[in-house]
Amino acid sequence: MKIVDSVERAIARRSAGMGLALVIVAAVTLEATALIQYIYSGRAIRQEATMRAESQLESTQGKILDVINQAEAAVRNSVWIAQWCLDVPDSLQRVSQRIVEDNPVVLGSTVALVPGYLKSRPLFSPYVYLNGDQLVFRSLATEDYDYPNQEWFTKPIELDEGYWSEPYVDIGGGEVLMTTFSMPIKDKNGVTAAVLTADVSLDWLTELVGNIRVYPSAYSMMFSRTGKIMVCPPAETLVMRHSVEEVAAQMEDTSTALSLTRRMFSGEAGSMPVTNNGEKKIVYFSPMNRTGWVMSIVIPESDMFASIQKVGKNVLLLQLLGLLMLILILRSFFKSQLKYKDLYDKKERIEGELHIARGIQMSMVPKIFPPFPERHDLDMAAAIVPAKEVGGDLYDFYIRDEKLFFCIGDVSGKGVPASLVMAVTRTIFRTVSAHTDKPGLIAWAMNDSMADMNESNMFVTFFCGVLDLASGHLCYCNAGHNPPMLLTDAIRPLAVEANLPLGIMQGMEFAEQEIDLRYDDAIFLYTDGLNEAENIAHEQFGEARMEEALHGRKAALDLLESVKEKVGAFVGEAEQSDDLTMLFIHYLGNKEA
Fold it and tell me: Which of 239, 243, 280, 481 could form a disulfide with 461 if both were Cys (CB 3.0 to 4.6 A apart)?
């Protein structure tokens, strides 16, 4: 009896030790999975934020340069006229008047003679500017204004070329915040005789830059070549009163802020994190070399990572559920060890728990059909049948801004590793597609994130699309996946580019394609578990049988059931060797087109 008790205690101690080890391994695995998912998603979000900020900077600077180019062209095209009129100074006012009348971006203009150039006119600067819809004529040759010492007059003469002045409030001229483009004018002997100008109001710049909204709490700023704040929506009182260095010196992380300031005015474009009042922000900046101005976009990290924080809560819940399930499994296993259950009973219990694991995996894909019962422009359904209890196929879809975002994928490998990659892939797709409707960009961002930490050398064949439900316009991108079938008047494969699967290599470009769907057109997406399904004789179901199974229009759910029945009848008693996933999208919109 003592020997039996000793054996039982030894078995119990060994089982307890194994159970504790399993709990630790499982907890570490779950935490590692969450960490990998967070890193993947975080990098994808940062890349998306960078693309959005850089695109906005480039677009806004393009609009600013349009105005700059118009003002410069107005002056350069009038230099020869001003040269012609130097001997008749009273006609110079007409030159400025023409510049203002013919160029909507120009607020005012003057031809200012070099002091003493004409003995009859020691100081001469007729100024023409718009006041509302009326032209106003006045002279800048006054003691109070002292135009020969103004920057717009001295700098172009000093540099002997065109020059954009620092933004200023022209007290003696246009009386508004403006900047001036000036060109020196030389007479027929090559002597600098005058300066021709075009004043550009900056009111439009304040509105243009202030309306940029990359994220809800993000804002944009503009600085002059000397660091003066030109536009600052959060603190308009700083405009033209303080410099960016003065503001940086007052910030919490002064050294970082000053380092950022030096980089901004070094001529480079880039980004840099900075912390103030306990809040971390990313500052994206880009110079405008023609004027010396610098434009920046400030994005709080709290805005940038709002979506991933929401996902993180769901992942934590799944982790707790997973640990709870593992504890229940181990508890059941210990009882069976202590009660000397036979191998068959233990196997049945483990298989039962794996069914639950499969249920957890299946809960990550949409499974309520029809998914959008309130819509009459769309009929769709999907099905996934894992070859093992936990498979690696995935699909997903949702509607945002009247556009259907959808995807299908096949993870290399089987079992739990494939299901973990499947979960990460689906999460990254949701995260990235929440910020862009370009399938090519979605595939690019997902690929870079997944390839960065792909130590297991697993990859995902992937197809994603964005369908405009109003017009039927479909943009899509294929990453090494089976071409979907297009059901129109005929059934044929959708034309796809031969891109690589996701997760193989960073920096890959993914070609984006497009097609217009008409009313009653449909797309059938599938994984290779369908066309490569084998019967006992090792014959494959094949594309021909698949196309035949798609003939005859049915409701989405009925069509998928019909295809599954025909595959099952063909396979017979043969064991399913690969996951089988299908997604059917029947477009019923744009009926009047």
Answer: 481
